[in-house]
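As the work plan foresaw, our protein records have gained a structure token line. A representative record is set out beneath this paragraph:
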Amino acid sequence: MKIIILGAGMVGGPIAIDLAKDKKFDVTAVDIRESNLSRLNGYSINKINADLSRTDIIKKIIEGQNLVVNAVPGFIGFETLRTAIDSEKDVVDITFYAEDPFLLDQLAKEKNVTAIVDCGVAPGLSNLIVGNLNYHLDETESIIIYVGGLPQKKEGLFEYKVVFSINDLLEEYIRPARYIENEKQVIKPALSECELIEFSDVGILEAFNSDGLRTIARTINAPNMKEKTLRYPGHAEKIAILREAGFFSKEEIEINGVKIRPFDLSAKILSEVFKFQQGDRDLTVLRVIMQGKKNGKKVKHTFEMLDRYDENTEMHSMARTTGYMATMCVRLLADGLYREKGITPPEFIGKDEECYEFIINGLRQRNIIVKEFKE
């Protein structure tokens, strides 16, 4: 089976490596940066240096491929997904774009394509968990998701490092957060409603509103649903100051005759501030709390995952947890376990017990463990 990964960055690269270990896959990785492709040397991976912002190039390079993994930055993610679907390719998508993926549902069905979207941690693994438990409960009353990728050491001005696209990170900080409260959609600014929460083996973290519910807001019937991002305490306040001062504005300003967007300048500067250095380690925290009713009784289920940098493979946790969720979805399609056509968020897959266990067991084999607690 021929699989092509569009984007070979800090998450796309590990996706390519994990799939290349499976002899039934012929893997190709594409990136505009030679430095990203060079990290794949020594693995059985075909490499193409190409500009993925151009849909004509994407159409050409995915010809003859069986499945596309979309791992480009969010600002070109939706159009890349559209191009892959229009080219009649099944897709596993990890990109974080603002557009509603269901806008492409009819196209995907017309093209006889399965497109699994939001295949990360949250959205992604969280959706899978929610979809599975929601299917088994008689009634789901509330869902709250906490997620964060953090450096293991609290150091630097912001006490934060980023493993994925800096542009996607800044989008988390400026995109309004949508959640469901008393059956109605509520929109709040990102970074708002900070609260402090304790996590075993990590300590106290702050949680703030972010736009991570995504498809769950329309696919799951629950009167109360919210997603929050986790950081070390104090991070949100510092970022909010930059945002309110205009550093993340996308309106052009002129400096010495040159027009520039503050967003682009900030992304360039912060990409170095937030960059992982040699020897840096990270961790990923996920907590999903669902309450509802089963057989007339109130129940509460809490799912937790704590993953750390893998010393053996020298792979960052956020790359592992995001990347392996995607590669297990690739295997799900390759093995013919999931065949529904159209746009498929992970909560749809979670409804199928065999598919759910396939992904959870695959993650467990890669030492990504989800623990469940029932009350």
